[in-house]
Please model this.
Amino acid sequence: MAKQGRILGIGPTDNTSDQRTPRQPLRLIPDIARASFVPVVPARYATNPHEWDMTRTAPDRPRADGVPIEVTGRVRSASGRPVAGALLEVWSANHYGRYRHVEDHSGLQLDDNHLGMGRVLTDGEGRYRFWAISPGAYLARPDIGRWRPKHIHMSISGGSSRLITQMYFPGEPNNASDPMAILMGDAFERNIGRLRDPQTAGVEEAYDFDIVVGGRSATFFE
Amino acid sequence: MTDPASNLLPATNEDTCGPYFPIYFADPALEDLTRFPPGVVGAAEGTRIILRGRVLDRHGELANGAVLEFWQANAKGVYRTPATQGDAGIDPWFDGYGRLRTASGAYEFRTILPGAAPGRAPNITITIFSDGISRIVTQVFFDGQAGNDADPVLQSVGNDAPKLIARHDGRTASGAEVYVFDVVMAGPGETPFFDDLES
Model:
């Protein structure tokens, strides 16, 4: 069978997905042009040293409401190579399900001790660590009663590795009805953090979330 | 899609960036590749351009909150990658990677006109993240460039080639040539997007 470009799935019960998902099959890239489709993100990232702890807005500020958690993991390419020195941009809602974003008009409760945005770098083995407040689930579609399950957004940029994804939480009742999770099917399991012993007094829960950046990252490094 | 004989690790699923990609993460140096920090001597070589336009949805409405990433060769047609490290054609003051988030769906990216890489017409790869979708990718070309007729990507999309060509606006703004390029995410006039997982 001749190779064909994918047809992208449309998230069920997701209006924006219906409005924004291309309908035509994706086009195959001619071989000679393939490398030009692999951006290399330059390693000059703006980060602040305290941003790894998103349970407070600054080291000298009080803890935000909710359950403080630690998230750790390794970022690797599909062949297992660590993605070292990569930037992880992390954002999530507060305990009440509200983002500190000027376009979040949900009216849910803000928390003056919660920013919900931070940046960390992976070490030489591709490992990362941050603290966050376990985010609240929120009603994304009041008209049909659809909730977004608890999730943490992560954007990974490191050389030719680029991925925007979300970490979900195990055993959450709203996981099964999430439109993007439905599109992922059985592979949704890969996007769920693994509960582990915290091993530190600083947080109440801890999760491992190993990330594998697939696809186009292979071109230059392997 | 997954080759059962492959020993590759299963990739983490891409997911939507949602409507709230933090404006907080914006970096002015990534929105204007000709910009230099105050007090620092230096400049990217090449013709300054402004690439501006709209990201539109299936109904022709502006796609608010979209994140656009740009990737291009320098004025000599050389991409800055691990493969070109030490290449004489590298511009030390030009990385070729940009990023911006558009609140409204209208965007403006300042850069230099890319040179032609071997066998190619000048182009910029555009990656789009937004609520409702995962990453989608295309390439934009520039009206009137000699290599357009022979470019393999433009040829590969056949009659859709004009949808990938930015129109010269016929004017300059603050010394930069203005090009206009609308991205149509879905529906009538849909921009051709490319598959960098299956290709």
